[in-house]
Amino acid sequence: MTRKFAIWAAPAALALGLAGVTGVSAATVRNRPAVSTAQAAASSTDDYIDPGPYQRRLDPLVGTWKAVKYNYILGGDGTPVVSHDITVRTRWITKTGGRFLQEQTEGTLAGKPYYRLGVLGFSNVDRRYEWTTFDSVTPTAMTYRGAPVSGFPSVLSIPGTFTDPGLLGPAGRTIAMRTVITLKGHPAFDLYFTEPGQAERLVDRVVYTHRIR
Prior knowledge:
Blueprint: H1 3-22, H2 26-31, H3 37-49, H4 53-56, E1 63-71, H5 72-75, E2 81-92, E3 100-109, E4 112-123, E5 128-135, E6 142-145, E7 155-163, E8 174-182, E9 188-194, E10 201-211
Antiparallel strand pairs: 1-2, 1-10, 2-3, 3-4, 4-5, 5-6, 6-7, 7-8, 8-9, 9-10
């Protein structure tokens, strides 16, 4: 056997061997387009990058809503301060490819102007909902990271922590918090705090009463 024939015969024999094992013809094996490592990696990560059903689960929040806000910290004695002039505008951020919701809440709280900006999304890699807010009351970002979810919940429970600036007691304490988001019916955002050595308590609630548009 010449060297030229030997070089040709090796890949041909491999193709015939594969055909014998899998039932695929040698010609099919030879003519099958190669899949690059980059293509394979892109295919395997599509589910992690592209928005999907867990993002779509947040669609009921989209719109402009009238809402009522109950704040139990400012009220004291378990009686909340109630704001009836709250407007919530929630939109998918199109420049993120529909991966994140932006929420803007405006109105008054205890007679003073109130504003909150929130960003809500789902991490496909971590399989968890993530929620971050910035408002006109608290001088720090409030960041929440949920536990991995299974199925498609209609109520989201997303925990986090923040450093108390002195609203609840001595400044500098780490306060555990949790936002519970109800997606069905009238959407609602319930905020709970757990101060060191105390039981969890509801501190703020926003209930969407009706959609304006």
